Each structure stands twice: as structure tokens, then as C-alpha cells.
Amino acid sequence: MLSAAEQQQRSQAVCRRLSRQKLFRTSRRIAAYLPADGEVDPRPLIELAWQLGKQVYLPVLIPWLGNRLWFARYTPDTRLASNRFGIAEPEISHRQRIAAHALDLVLTPLVGFDNNGNRLGMGGGYYDRSFSHLLRHKHWCKPRLAGLAYDFQQLPRLSSRPWDVPLTAVVTDTDWHLFTQGNTP
């Protein structure tokens, strides 16, 4: 378990590393998340994206739409409310959300990842359901999925299921992992 100071230091290293990548620099619509349970904190990237004139989105749970994520615009003035899991998300009307395929880059939290771009999440399957179109359309490359992780979250191998959507890349506090299968840049 990392201390709060270690989490902050390592999160900043992850954000600096990703901010230098073409994947981030060329993306206009970026989905992020607000950290929970010790996840890498992407808020420095969010602030940089705002400074660069990029649009930032946060996931919104819509249970009656197949337990998929939709995404709502996030600005410094956005009002947030807790969803049923206690995770902050924008308070929006239905007309203010966009579908996953409209994004350029999605920053994903994770519990673990492997050298093949497999991601272990919290177990709800929301990201896999929301980005399943990437499995069906091999030439469709949007959005690109970048996992944000600490080095120790890398595992030798994760088992994958046919519905698991692989990551384009994983950025850690000391490394950049780019995967060749799936929706590569």
C-alpha cells in the first residue's frame, strides 16, 4: 500500500509521462476519471488538457442502458454528484452526454495489467461493455484506451475472455507500454 505522498508523487510521474506522448497530444476529446481507492490520480492531466483547449469528459453510469458508460463534459465549473457506487460524476441532463465512440482517448483506471494489454478492473465490466465496438470493428481505432497504473500493478499474465477489450497502452510511473493488437495508435 502506498502512502498518500507516494500516490501523489507516482501519479504525477504517470501524468508527466503520458502528457509527452503523441497519444495524448493529438487527442481532442479525452475521457478521464476521478480517483478512488488508491487509483492513479489523473487530475494533473485533466488540468493540462483544459489548458491546451481539449475537451474533458467523465464517465456516467446509466444502468437502464445496458450498464454501459456514457460520458459527460467536465469543466472546472461542473457540478458533481455521487453515483450508486459513491463515485463522483457530473450532474447532467440526458442531452449532455456523449457515447464512447465519440471520444479520442480514454484514461482507464485498473487493478492490474499484463504485457498483452489485458486489463483487470474492479469487476463490473463497464469499460468492456462500453467499448465493445472496438472488438467488432478491427479498423475502427477510436477511442484509444490508455490504462494509468503504478509499476507494481503489472502482472505476468491475465486470462482474457472474448468480451475483454484490450488497452492501446498503459502508462506507469516509470514506463510506457504500447500494445500492438487492438486499437493501436
Task: Name some characteristics of this structure.
185 residues; alpha/beta; Rossmann fold; two-stranded antiparallel ribbon
What does this entry show, briefly?
By secondary structure, this protein is α/β, with parallel strands linked by helices. It has five helices and twelve strands.
Description of the molecule:
- This protein is α/β, with parallel strands linked by helices.
- The chain has one domain (4-178): NagB/RpiA/CoA transferase-like (Rossmann fold).
- It is built from five helices and twelve strands.
- The strands form three sheets. Strands 6-3-2-1-7-10-11-12 form an eight-stranded mixed β-sheet. The chain has a two-stranded antiparallel ribbon with strand order 4-5.
- Helix 1 (4-19) packs parallel to helix 3 (43-51).
- The radius of gyration is 15 Å and the shape is globular.
- The termini are far apart.
Total helices: the number is: 5
Listing every helix as H and every strand as E from the N terminus to the C terminus, the arrangement reads: HHEHEEEEEEEEHHEEE
Report helical residue fraction.
10-25%
What fold name stands as the CATH topology?
Answer: Rossmann fold
Q: Determine and state the CATH class.
A: Alpha Beta
**How many separate structural domains?**
1
Output the structural class: alpha/beta
The CATH architecture designation is 3-Layer(aba) Sandwich
For CATH, the homologous superfamily is named as NagB/RpiA/CoA transferase-like
For the biggest sheet, the summary is: 8 strands, mixed
Low-confidence stretches: none
User: What would the average pLDDT be, to the nearest integer?
Assistant: 89
Shape label: globular
Spatial order of the strands forming the largest sheet: 6-3-2-1-7-10-11-12
The portion of residues forming beta strands comes to 15-25%
Q: Could you give the distance between the termini?
A: 33 Å
